[in-house]
Write a structure and sequence with these properties.
The structure holds two protein chains of two kinds. Chain A has helices at 19-30, 44-53, 68-81, 100-105, 118-132, and strands at residues 6-10, 34-37, 58-63, 88-93, 108-112. Chain A is built from five helices and five strands. Chain B has 13 helices and eight strands. In chain B, helix 1 (4-12) crosses helix 2, helix 1 (4-12) packs parallel to helix 3 (33-40) and helix 2 packs across helix 3 (33-40). The chains are: A alpha/beta, B alpha/beta. Bound molecules: cobalamin (B12), guanosine-5'-triphosphate and magnesium ion.
Chain lengths: 133, 319
């Protein structure tokens, strides 16, 4: 058995800020994970469908444009609708503190804001994997 | 749906989740992966196209064009895109999908990214098995994009029915250092980025190299395209269709069966050897230590293992 943690990093909507997403993607790769990166300007649908085809354990969404309160829950809804609510959702970007409880309610296990060290994200994923086993 | 039978049934019904799970099982070498493949093998119906070539040659961009082309014909298309895994951490950044994402929500397109996971040669150890799963699920063609490394061509040509080697202007020494053997293995040589300077030079260089192809080998067709602006794609599709027509379906499947058997025999040989090492030396590590300490040569170990196996067969052969 050669099981790897698989993570998809997606950027929904029109937001073109991709540094954070790429930074996280590389950090997770360096932590030994297989990271599928979809690129920018994806529809929530395309992200959810890609996540299912890729059979990932996690989907991480990145958004700096301010549209998170709409796009984050939409990805979560689509995954539930497609019978893939076992995939763990998390996200990051420029997200005001007061929006975080609502996103957690929508199904996000954690939200990481600017300045978060990548190690914290790696730790979060490893912890979630342990909990799952 | 996590049960083996559930997955096999799901693949038959075209369930995306089941296909995705089956791919993970075979990729991870789970205990039920051979059962899954055993059930799916005979259901394969598609043909496979391999796309190889140096990093950044435009392989993914071309695969994206191929998806559009085959979808327009009404086919379901499967894609396996292999990217390199880090030999140090085992991690991988799987980015081929970026260029194909416009097809992500098309239910008749299935794209799967794979890390090479320590396998050399431009594919991952499970690429053939993954291709079997997609083909059995009804995707045809199954397109396989290799890691953009130098020696990938040989392995992909063995796996795929049709192999495209993508070259681009400005490779310079890279093309020159390519052995004639690699060019012989490709069915079609695609000269991409025809919108760029240097395409003429590349074409004359490639054509000159092909002059040296050994007698008895078929010369690959050379097609000039631009995967970004679409130039030359019709010619490429024509070349692929001509080749596909020369590979009747049954022929393809029996060829693939023999190759798959070869691969399984190799894997089994490895497994049996590990078992024999266990019996003879308490495991591979000890044998390696003895070799490194200069007490044994690798040849002596190999011979010892064969003798051991022969004694075991003689012992059992009498009944
Ligand atoms: C660099 C930058 C740009 C660059 C982007 C380059 C690029 N390719 O990314 C350029 C100049 C192109 C740009 C353009 C614009 N920008 Co700008 N930009 C920034 C800036 C200064 C830094 C962003 C950045 O790269 N940070 C570095 C990375 C590493 O950090 P990060 O993305 O935040 O990621 C960290 C965390 O958030 C988290 N994270 C992020 N994503 C994810 C995902 C996961 C899964 C996880 C776990 C964690 C995680 O982890 C990372 C590490 O800590 C920010 C201001 C700021 N301080 O954030 C504004 C900012 C994001 N931009 C802003 C705006 C308005 C724009 C423009 C609309 C400006 C305009 N009017 O033209 C355009 C829009 C461009 C577009 N197409 O979307 C606003 C957004 C306002 C809002 N949210 O309400 C900001 C916040 C500036 C501001 N204070 O007004 N921008
Ligand atoms: N000018 C030009 N650029 C192209 C063409 N085809 C691809 N590209 C560009 O070349 C770059 C690499 O393209 P990819 O399709 O990702 O190449 P690849 O061979 O899949 O790369 P790896 O998978 O990383 O080895 C991208 O910026 C493409 O837009 C073309 O015909 N002309
Ligand atoms: Mg590629």
């Amino acid at each position: 058995m050669d099981r790897k943690i698989r993570v998809l990093i997606g950027k929904p909507g029109l937001d073109g800020h991709d540094r954070g997403a790429k930074y996280i993607a590389r950090a997770l790769r360096d932590a030994g994970m297989e990271v599928v990166y979809t690129g920018i300007r994806q529809t929530p649908e395309a992200i959810a469908d890609a996540a299912i085809q890729e059979d990932v354990d996690f989907v991480g969404i990145s958004l700096l444009s301010g549209a998170h309160n709409h796009l984050f829950p939409e990805v979560a809804r689509l995954l539930r609708e497609k019978d893939a609510s076992d995939i763990i959702l998390f996200g990051g970007g420029v997200i005001p503190e007061e929006d975080i409880p609502g996103l957690k309610e929508a199904g996000y296990a954690a939200i990481f804001t600017p300045g978060t060290p990548a190690a914290e994200v790696v730790e979060f994923i490893n912890l979630q994997m342990e909990k799952r086993q | 749906m996590t049960s083996t039978t559930g997955i096999i049934q799901g693949v038959g019904e075209g369930s995306i989740r089941a296909i995705a799970r089956a791919l993970s099982r075979v990729e991870n070498g789970s205990s039920d992966s051979t059962d899954i493949l055993d059930k799916l093998f005979a259901r394969q119906q598609g043909f496979t196209i391999g796309v190889t070539g140096p990093p950044g040659a435009g392989k993914s961009t071309l695969v994206n064009r191929m998806i559009t082309r085959y979808r327009a014909d009404g086919n379901s298309v499967g894609v396996i895109a292999v990217d390199p895994s880090s030999p140090f951490t085992g991690g991988a950044l799987l980015g081929d999908r970026i260029r194909m994402q416009s097809h992500a929500s098309d239910p008749k397109v299935f794209i799967r990214s794979m890390g090479s996971r320590g396998h050399l040669g431009g594919l991952s150890g499970a690429t053939r098995d993954a291709s079997c799963v997609l083909s059995a699920a009804g995707y045809s063609p199954v397109i396989i994009e290799t890691v953009g490394v130098g020696q990938a061509e040989v392995e992909i040509a063995d796996l795929a029915d049709i192999t495209l080697l993508v070259l681009v202007p400005g490779l310079g020494d890279d093309v020159q250092s390519m052995k004639a053997g690699i060019m012989e293995i490709a069915d079609i040589i695609v000269l991409n980025k025809a919108d760029r300077n240097g395409i003429e030079q590349l074409e004359s260089y490639v054509k000159a190299s092909l002059e040296f192809i050994s007698a008895g080998f078929k010369k690959p067709e050379v097609v000039r395209i631009s995967a970004v602006n679409g130039e030359g794609l019709e010619d490429l599709w024509g070349a692929i269709d001509r080749l596909a027509a020369t590979h009747p379906g049954e022929n393809r499947i029996s060829r693939s069966a023999v190759r798959t058997l070869n691969e399984i025999l190799r894997e089994n040989g490895m497994l049996f050897s590990e078992k024999l090492l266990e019996l003879e030396y308490n495991g591979r590590e000890t044998a390696e230590e003895l070799i490194l300490a200069g007490q044994l040569t690798p040849y002596a170990v190999g011979k010892k293992l064969l003798e051991r196996a022969e004694r075991m067969f003689e012992h059992n052969g009498s009944n």
